[in-house]
């Protein structure tokens, strides 16, 4: 069982930007379950999508893999031979813990865990690429070029999964969904202090996009179909098929 997330439980004089350091890695499973509505459903469904879309002798990329939850879900569901999963994260602490998780389960599908900037990774012969709450942490000007590289490296019929926190153009709807998310965190035991301090730490690091902007980029890149397949409050996941 993961240790409980208490990182923001005491008052912090000067709140710095949120980083995926050793402290976060220790409590990450608890943090993500109590902070991201629907996270377990998304992880489970990524595995189901892998079963449907991963083809023999192709590559699968989990970009921003954190502790490897999506990677392990994909590997459990792959039915095809000759596949290889490449899991990438730029946090040394995350990568080291991800390797332990991956090595704890035997499988015929090999996983290569790489510590690197996902913008530097070559994408080739891919039948599936996953950006599970990753794109929102890239600078906005780098997002399209990464998606462009992913599109070029996807085989026809390949799928891209993009899970994100969303912003909404309608101000009252946007505020309501934020309030519901905060209610979700309160229901999971976070205090007002924790909610406030975490929001301050992450607001300069995570810059979400609207669903409309995601769809505009998918259309411009040439994906044949794309849609939101899961949403809970202001969190969700989209697919784009080449």
Automatic annotation (TrEMBL):
Q: What Pfam families would the database entry show?
A: Methyltransf_25
Its BP terms in the Gene Ontology are: methylation; tRNA wobble uridine modification
Q: Where is the Methyltransferase domain?
A: 60-158
**Sample GO molecular function, one term:** carboxyl- or carbamoyltransferase activity
Cite the entry's keywords alphabetically.
Methyltransferase, S-adenosyl-L-methionine, Transferase
Superkingdom field: Bacteria
Membrane-spanning parts: none
Which family does the record claim for this protein?
A: Belongs to the class I-like SAM-binding methyltransferase superfamily. Cx-SAM synthase family.
- Describe its partners and assembly state: Homodimer.
Q: What is this protein called?
A: Carboxy-S-adenosyl-L-methionine synthase
Look up and give the organism this protein is from: Vibrio diazotrophicus
């Amino acid at each position: 069982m993961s240790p409980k997330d208490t990182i923001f439980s005491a008052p912090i004089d000067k709140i710095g930007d949120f980083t995926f350091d050793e402290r976060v890695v220790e409590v990450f499973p608890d943090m993500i379950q109590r902070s991201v509505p629907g996270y377990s459903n998304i992880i489970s469904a990524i595995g189901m999508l892998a079963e449907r879309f991963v083809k023999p002798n192709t590559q699968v990329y989990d970009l921003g893999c954190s502790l490897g939850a999506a990677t392990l879900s994909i590997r459990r569901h792959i039915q095809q031979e000759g596949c290889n999963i490449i899991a990438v994260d730029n946090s040394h602490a995350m990568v080291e813990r991800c390797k332990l998780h991956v090595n704890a389960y035997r499988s015929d599908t090999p996983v290569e865990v790489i510590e690197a900037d996902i913008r530097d990774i070559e994408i080739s012969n891919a039948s599936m690429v996953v950006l599970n709450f990753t794109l929102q942490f890239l600078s906005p000007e780098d997002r399209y070029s990464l998606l462009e590289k992913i599109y070029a490296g996807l085989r026809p019929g390949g799928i891209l999964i993009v899970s994100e926190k969303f912003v909404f153009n309608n101000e009252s709807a946007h505020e309501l969904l934020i309030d519901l998310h905060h209610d979700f965190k309160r229901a999971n035991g976070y205090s007002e202090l924790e909610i406030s301090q975490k929001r301050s730490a992450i607001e300069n690091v995570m810059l979400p996009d609207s669903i409309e902007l995601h769809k505009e980029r998918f259309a411009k890149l040439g994906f044949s179909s794309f849609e939101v397949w899961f949403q809970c409050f202001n969190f969700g996941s989209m697919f784009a098929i080449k």
